Amino acid sequence: MERYTGAFEEAVDGARQQERHYQLLSALQSLVKELPSSFQQRLSYTTLSDLALALLDGTVFEIVQGLLEIQHLTEKSLYNQRLRLQNEHRVLRQALRQKHQEAQQACRPHNLPVLQAAQQRELEAVEHRIREEQRAMDQKIVLELDRKVADQQSTLEKAGVAGFYVTTNPQQPFCTPGADAADEPVGAHQEAAAEGPPGGEDSLVTRWGLCQLPAARHG
């Protein structure tokens, strides 16, 4: 009798697992439909089914949550670093303007053109320095975020999550955990670093959705 009871319970558990797998697969298929058709073609039924299987026991949800926490801490740190640099530049500009105004007020009229020319050269040198420091900071941010993407890829690959492995190939955006990766693949970030942040001063950090797997939305 106990043998039959055990077999029945196993059958029930199997049915529950199958139902849960179907629910996860349906959710993934719904998410894929929101993507451009060119990217939908890369996510086969087999890949989505394997991904749904990996999500069954809840371990992947915990892994993704941990990755999200690390990601958010990294984003906050990088954002604060850039904000501090912007504040330093603001103070530098204000001090330079004050210095120039005081010098002009103390300058004799016939020497003013020479002084203004020298001040213009100094201003241009300071602005060049500011641009270079901002560019260096943006490159640092992009490279650090790329490293985090690689860490996430490696972690999810080791966890057996289908479709994840370390890559910087911009033609394989779905190998990253980010739902936004289709718009900003990893390889593109490194190229964009030299151009500064697109769309706003803090956009490199705030637009970087590294880990938006369906697992992250698990209640």
Structural description of this entry:
- Belongs to the gonadal family.
- This is Protein DGCR6L isoform X1.
- InterPro entries: Gonadal.
- Residues 179-204 are annotated as: Disordered.
- It comes from Callorhinus ursinus (Northern fur seal).
- The structure is a single chain.
- This protein is an all-alpha fold and 219 residues long.
- Among the domains are: 12-57; 61-160.
- Helix content is 69%, strand content 0%.
- The chain has helices at 2-33, 37-40, 45-54, 59-106, 112-158, 186-192, 203-206.
- It is rod-shaped and about 95 Å long.
- The two termini are 38 Å apart.
Please bin the fraction of helical residues.
55-70%
**What gyration radius follows from the Cα positions, in whole Å?**
27 Å
Instruction: Label the overall shape.
Output: rod-shaped
Q: What structural class results from the helix and strand content?
A: mainly alpha
Distance between the termini: 38 Å
* Largest sheet entry: none
* Mean pLDDT value: 78
Listing every helix as H and every strand as E from the N terminus to the C terminus, the arrangement reads HHHHHHH
Question: How many strands in all?
Answer: 0
- Beta-strand residue fraction: under 5%
Q: What is the helix tally?
A: 7
Poorly predicted segments: 173-219
Organism: Callorhinus ursinus
Pfam family, one: DGCR6
Protein name: Protein DGCR6L isoform X1
Family: Belongs to the gonadal family.
